[in-house]
Design brief:
Strand order of the largest sheet: 1-2
Oligomer: single chain
Pfam family, one: MerR_1
Radius of gyration: 17 Å
Domain HTH merR-type: 9-77
Strand content: under 5%
CATH topology: Multidrug-efflux Transporter Regulator, Chain: A, Domain 2
Distance between the termini: 32 Å
Number of domains: 1
Largest sheet: 2 strands, antiparallel
Keywords: DNA-binding, Repressor, Transcription, Transcription regulation
Helix content: 55-70%
Order of helices and strands: HHEEHH
InterPro entries: DNA-bd_dom_put_sf, MerR-type_HTH_dom, MerR_fam
CATH class: Mainly Alpha
Shape: extended
Protein name: MerR family transcriptional regulator
CATH architecture: Orthogonal Bundle
């Protein structure tokens, strides 16, 4: 079961109200590959609470003068580190379960 924070149920207007970002800014961050809303059958964007938190982090970095390509690079690097850590944890669990080294 997924966390409520991951459910994509929030409209772009509500994201605008929660973050203070303009609708154009939110769409721009989507265009740059920093955020990935779901689309309804009618094409309406839907965001999660995690997306809102991410948009606030992006906005903070932009205020500090960080360019969007740098933010994307940092996000990809962070994801790769998390993936490697998860792989090591799973490998450790597998090895412990089957008593391997």
């Amino acid at each position: 079961m997924s966390s409520y924070k991951e459910k994509k149920v929030i409209s772009i207007g509500t994201v605008n109200e929660l973050t203070g970002l303009s609708v154009r800014q939110i769409r721009y961050y989507e265009e740059k590959g920093l955020i990935y809303p779901e689309r309804t059958t009618r094409g309406t964007r839907r965001y999660s609470f995690s997306d809102v938190e991410l948009l606030l982090q992006i906005a903070d970095k932009r205020e500090e003068g960080v360019q969007t390509y740098e933010i994307k690079k940092d996000m990809q690097s962070s994801k790769e580190k998390k993936d490697k850590m998860m792989e090591r944890m799973l490998r450790g669990q597998f090895n412990a379960h089957f008593k391997m080294r």
